[in-house]
Design brief:
The structure holds two protein chains of two kinds. By secondary structure, chain A is an all-beta fold. Chain A is about 0% helix and about 50% strand. Chain A is built from no helices and eleven strands. Chain A has strands at about 5, 10-15, 20-25, 35-40, 45-50, 55, 60-65, 70-75, 85-90, 95, 100-105. In chain A, the strands form two sheets. In chain A, strands 2, 4, 5, 6, 9, 10 and 11 form a seven-stranded mixed β-sheet that branches. The N and C termini of chain A lie far apart (about 35 Å). By secondary structure, chain B is mainly beta. Chain B is built from no helices and eleven strands. Chain B has strands at about 5, 10, 20-25, 35-40, 45-50, 60, 70-75, 80-85, 90-100, 105, 110-115. The radius of gyration of chain B is 13 Å and the shape is globular. Classes of the chains: A mainly beta, B mainly beta. At the A-B interface, strand 5 and strand 10 of A face strand 5 of B.
């Protein structure tokens, strides 16, 4: 099975900061990676697919990059409404999610 | 507007069965693969089952294979998850999700399943 490792597990940042979240796959998954945002008490929301494609309706401050085993989700200017837990998910072989990065305001 | 509404959760004893339902609206249900994804309390997400548009093909991870069965009724725009031989580790919030192109693009609000004696 492909394992997904996210870092850091907790990230504190200020409004307006550029924020980078990391996701590492245990083997090459090419660009078969998605990112999801889950706010407290809500269902997850798809943000990014194919490693760098923005889902319809998602603000352009969110972007994704990477391929192979190393991936990044970047928020260019953190907004208060971005406080959430972010999960990466591979779909190269089956479907597995990372444990998540909890993003909070400093 | 896409809506997915799960129902059927609750408290069940280990070894017993439970069936979850998901009512879909706002999109052409019969055109989409569908899936169930679960989240144990304060834990991450785990894919549970996928079903093709017609229902002829189903897919499961090893953790639930042989115990869980996904099905659908396209005439009723409904998705189901039959869960048998439940274990404590099946305790989670279960989400119904539309599942095009290997993504989980729309999710319901989830239904809680607690397996405990």
């Amino acid at each position: 099975d492909i394992q997904m490792t996210q870092s850091p597990s907790l990230l504190s940042a200020s409004v307006g900061d550029r924020v980078t979240l990391n996701c590492k796959a245990s083997q090459n998954i090419y660009k078969n990676l998605a990112w999801y945002q889950q706010k407290l008490g809500e269902a997850p929301k798809l943000l990014i697919y194919n490693a760098n494609s923005l889902q319809t309706g998602i603000p352009s401050r969110f972007s994704g990059s990477g391929s192979g085993t190393d991936f990044t989700l970047t928020i260019s200017s953190l907004q208060p409404e971005d406080v959430a837990t972010y999960f990466c998910q591979q779909y190269y072989s089956g479907y597995t999610f990372g444990a998540g990065t909890k993003l909070e305001l400093k | 507007e896409v809506q997915l509404v799960e129902s059927g959760g609750g408290l069940v004893q280990p070894g017993r069965s439970l069936k979850l339902s998901c009512a879909a609206s706002g999109f052409t249900f019969s055109n989409y693969y569908m899936a169930w994804v679960r989240q144990a309390p304060k834990k991450g997400l785990e894919w549970v089952a996928t079903i093709s548009t017609s229902g002829s093909r189903t897919y499961y991870p090893d953790s639930v294979k042989g115990r869980f069965t996904i099905s659908r009724d396209n005439a009723k725009s409904s998705l189901y998850l039959q869960m048998n031989s439940l274990k404590s580790e099946d305790t989670a919030t279960y989400y119904c999700a539309s599942h095009p192109n290997n993504l989980f693009d729309y999710w319901g609000q989830g239904v809680m399943v607690t397996v405990s004696s």
